[in-house]
Sequence to fold (428 residues):
Amino acid sequence: MAVLDASQDRIEVRPSGPLEGSVIIGGAKNSALKLMAACLLVEGTFVIRNVPQIQDVAAMADVLRVMGVSITRDANTLILQRPAVIEPVAPYEFTEKLRASTAVLGPLLASMGHATVALPGGDNFGVRPIDMHVAGLEAIGCRFEFSAGQVQASVDNLVGDHVLLEFPSVGATENIMMAATLAKGSTVIDNAAREPEIADLAGFLNQMGAQVSGAGTSTITVEGTQELYSAEHTVVADRIEAATFLATLGVAGGEIILEGANHDHMAILCRKLEEMGVRTSSDPSGVWAMCQEPLRAVDVSTLPYPGLPTDCKPLLVAMLSVADGVSIVTENLFSERFRYVDDLVRMGADIRTEGHHAVIRGVDKLSGTTVRAPDIRAGAAMVVAGMAAEGVTTVLDVHHIDRGYEDLVGKLSSLGADVRRIRDDRSV
Fold:
């Protein structure tokens, strides 16, 4: 059977606006992947609803399947059957596509006592080591060896302890939290990540019989239990997908409803957007937003949650490229996350970068040209920029966008955007 190769697909964007209507915001990618990993903790049948149909979810499914987990999908619901015996090995040919594959370490150590996981791939915008994952898991009894691009981990007895993270790492918080559910005694994670996705994972673990408290704050306590059970759960809405539609609204104008989105999860972002001229508020069905004026320049700094997410920064840079005035954008989390700026400059943006900072002088219009999607969010930012550009903007390498967005083109088109996907007709 021939399989279409979408690696050469492209997205064509033309000036659009105003946008109008409503769009459904899907489940959060960064939560769904960790919920899937948590199913490794115990034998049973798990049901996870509101799971986006994206490439990263497919990649995580492949990682779990190679261990022996059976996974089926019914629309946006995943059914995972974790057998009594699994193979706690994640080979590189599966992990190379997915940074989040490190999330299997904690649950594998808790349930199987050992794991071999190849160091992952994923977005390429700077080093994101797993040192904090390792240090936190070592604190509760785990041992690690690194060789040939993989980590071999083992544990005899998980024993709760106090874990102080040097930085509120989302991945480290999740791994420690999952492992600690089956540890003896109490584990306290200080300087824990506070993202909504952390609280979503904690809710899932508690439905499984775990005792996790404090998720969403900087101190999480996990009281170890001897037994967990399979469970059902609905994934929290994807705040980064919601931010993407707010960014397109900013450059195109109009009025939209983001169904299912949570305004509280985007409080700092919405405050910045208000300063730029995009009005937002909670709505009975999600989030309402309107933009009827030219964008204004603002200064932006990325910070751990509840600060401005680094995933939102490329979207804001695209918006600020056509805002009135001069903006300074500071990246405090990842060292190489301005790689997309060169393509924005080719489109006519006036952006100068120095280390962790970018100075953006807004221009009236960008000019359409051919650009690339270097990672998930930068790819979406290229689409945003295309909506603010004269002529046609062609975005290549859209397989990166597919990793994090379910039918971005279709959803934008439903709001009135002039955007279409050109399929590669080759087959392999």
User: Anything to note?
Assistant: The chain has a mean pLDDT of 94. The first strand starts at residue 10 and ends at 13.
